Amino acid sequence: MMRKHTFGHWACRLVAAIGAGLSVSANSEAQSLRWFGVMPGADYSRAYGVSADGSVVVGAFETYDTASRAFRWTVNGGVQDLGALGGSSSAAYGVSADGSVIVGWASIPSGFWRAFRWENGVMKDLGTLGGYTSEAYGVSADGSVIVGYADKREFQRQAFRWTTSGGMRNLGTLGGYWGEAFGVSADGSVVVGRAHDIRGVYHAFRWTAAGGMQALSESESEAYGVSADGSVVVGAVQFAGYGFRAFRWTAQTGIQNLTSDVGSSAFGVSADGSIVVGRLSIGMYRAFRWTEARGIEDLNITYASLLRNDAELREARAVSLDGRYIVGMGYNPSSRLQEAFLLDTWRAGDTNGDGCVNDADLLRVLFALGTRGTGYTRHEDINKDGIVGNADLLAVLFQLGQGC
Ligand SMILES: [Ca+2]
Ligand SMILES: [Ca+2]
Fold first, then answer.
1. Could you tell me if residue 3 is inside a domain?
2. Whose atoms come closest to the Cα of 399: which ligand?
3. Is residue 139 part of a domain?
């Protein structure tokens, strides 16, 4: 029987972790990188999701024997242990655009694990399709659509799409036995993942209500991310039997390899499909970003100024809707551990992403002064306290002229 390992006393350990594990490595004159530490008892941490404005990051403190614990980080509240469903293990894989809804899996007292939806401090068990276990991997921008896998019978994984109104629905397979949904479009209409064909080979799929589940490639493949409107899908595809390569798919282009690097994988994509993140496999994993204009960039090279003493960004697991924030896992030399990270690819004080802090940024903040709200186009709230105020104005003034 498949089981996830568990270990106790997480809550006690987390208290110590909050004090000791966090460290910030930020250069106020440039982009910034934040590490999330590793709670005592865990071996490493990994971030799997980021809210639209970068103020909420979700992930897990994990151990090499598969025990783990879901965490939520907020810019104002720090790291929070999300707990479990009566068991002791959990992981958080996705977060809604405003950061309020978190999805993942959590163990129940019997030791099995269930897909959960977390909101306002309450973790809800989404159930299964008749079997024992389930996991949620993706959530729509508004938190109303959740995707993942659920057992139909014992350990027969089926891709599911859950909605607040309709509950859990089986999306089927491509003719075989197993399926898993890894991503959902921001509007909730398009689901991507992988499913067995009749021979038991996994293919990346794209599901819509009208078209059902469609394979994106005849090769063995898996899809992890999808753009806001569902038109761009990213993942990894087997190349001539040599191994997997990161791909980007559109209806017009079909599957396109982003790199010749074997062992690479694309995990996340921005809302408009123009920015893809993932990992390369060059001896070891390296986090990458792909754009049409610049192709594949090793984030360790592009953001080398943020990486001191052999720090490394090893995997980019998700990117915010507008592409500004990237989260994943890297090596933090301060702790000598692999840790979850949040990379802000914009300069502090830059409100329009042009790399320069100037009058245009000042004007944007001035015009927004006194207004409340969040959202992924709302970069004027620089300190992310929910209101554009004097602190944000000062932040721009202090950086004026930087990068120009
Ligand atoms: Ca600017
Ligand atoms: Ca503010």
1. no
2. 1
3. yes
- Rounded to the nearest angstrom, the distance between the alpha carbon of 26 and the centre of ligand 1 is 19
Ligand 2 centroid distance, CA of 186 (Å): 26
| Residue (of 294, 293, 267, 291) closest to 280 by Cα position | 267
Provide the domain count of the chain: 2
Residues paired with 123 in a beta bridge = 118
Tell me, in angstroms, the distance from the centre of ligand 2 to residue 123's CA.
29
**CATH number, domain containing residue 194:** 2.120.10.30
Residues 234 and 367 both lie in one domain = no
List, in order, residues 6 or more apart from 374 with CB less than 8 Å away: 52, 53, 55, 98, 381, 384, 386
The pLDDT tens digits for 307-329 are 988 999 999 999 999 999 999 99
Using alpha carbons, select from 172, 188, 22, 218 the residue that is nearest to residue 103.
188
- CATH number for 363: 1.10.1330.10
- Residue whose token pair is 């001539």: 240
308 and 271, same structural domain? yes
The H or E element containing residue 330 is strand 325-332
**Could you tell me if 43 and 141 lie in one domain?**
yes
| pLDDT at res. 210 | 97
CA–centroid distance, 268 to ligand 2, in Å, is 28
Phi-psi region of 64 (alpha: psi -120 to 50; beta: other; left: phi over 0): alpha
| Helices within 303-389 (DSSP H only) | 359-368
Ligand nearest to the CA of 404: 1
Cα of 97 to ligand 2 centre, how many Å? 18
Count of Cβ atoms closer than 10 Å to residue 26 Cβ = 13
To which residue do tokens 């104002």 refer?
A: 76
**Domain residues for 197?**
10-345
Distance 394 CA to ligand 1 centre (A): 15
296-329 burial code (b ≥16 CB/10 A, e <16): beebbebbeebbeeebbbbbbbbbbbbbbbbbbb
Residue 172 lies in a domain: yes
Identify whether the C-beta of residue 83 lies closer than 8 Å to the C-beta of residue 90.
yes
Residue 174 DSSP class? B
Q: Is 166 helix (H, G, I), strand (E, B) or coil?
A: coil
pTM above 0.70, yes or no: yes
For residue 347, the 8-state DSSP code is P
Under the banding of pLDDT at 50, 70 and 90, the label for residue 1 is: very low
